[in-house]
Amino acid sequence: MENSNHPLKSATNQDIINKFFDYYIKRDFDGIRQVMADNVTWTFLGRHKLAGVKTGIEQVVAFFDTMSEIMSKSKPVVKKLVIGSNENYVIECQHIVTNREDGINIDHHVCVLWTFENGKIISGRHFFADPKSVDTFFDTVA
């Protein structure tokens, strides 16, 4: 990491992602600001209700809140297929199958690309193997 004053200067990018989720679960916005840039962008591709670019920590956290609410009702089985990283990126590919009581489910593959700069998350972007199924799922459950 370029910023020698950063509190997580010896952390890997995966460590930074893990810290983000630790802080997110605790609703620790000071902690989140240690690992996420104030002007972070998060892109959720598609033509469904949740699609678009979220800008700033507050919008990104609100997006994660919405996704958490949907997924808690969806009882997903998540299989991490592969994680790759280099100095500025982490990509994680997953196979996700939901198990909703209402029968509205999805079985799909998704990759999330995390981008880092100066020891902080500066963006995230979801890529879906079957965008039409994702659109249908989120338009129905969101």
From TrEMBL:
Residue ranges annotated for the SnoaL-like domain, each copy included: 18-122
Gene3D superfamilies, A to Z: 3.10.450.50
Domain of life: Bacteria
Entry-linked InterPro entries: NTF2-like_dom_sf, SnoaL-like
SUPFAM superfamilies xrefs: NTF2-like (SSF54427)
Record PANTHER family: BLR2505 PROTEIN
Protein's recorded name: Nuclear transport factor 2 family protein
